């Protein structure tokens, strides 16, 4: 599963290489608008007549991609690193399948580590019900929820999260690396 995802990650990194250089941030409104120059992107890559890439760039999925990944200050991930820093490596691996497979496996391992940051924690297995357990009549009533206790727990969690160090609060936002300009491809 992770290796197939890694292959698609590489494919889209190659396909959209240099897309950040064709983004324009318009700050007329209170909420900034991000515009992608499709013609410039296709022209600089010499792919104006490429029907497939033109349809991809005109699709709703790409519009969502631009709105989500367009802001210059957000949490970065593996895709951003591939687009910005792995250009030469991906180019060098085009004629060498063993290197390409090795890179795909490394990406798959990174994807696995991202989804399982604590691999040493074992998942608890749910035991199978015993034979005849469905014949027993021991239906327990659903417990009543104590609203005051729920509010106390919520407040306690909020105070703990406010006092927590910044690193444990989730993804840190940073300036997204632009990578090389489109003209290099």
From TrEMBL:
A GO cellular-component term linked to this record: cytoplasmic vesicle
Domain of life according to the entry: Eukaryota
GO biological process, one term: regulation of Rab protein signal transduction
GO terms, molecular function: guanyl-nucleotide exchange factor activity
Domain UDENN: 1-76
This protein's name: MTMRD protein
Organism expressing this protein natively: Bucco capensis
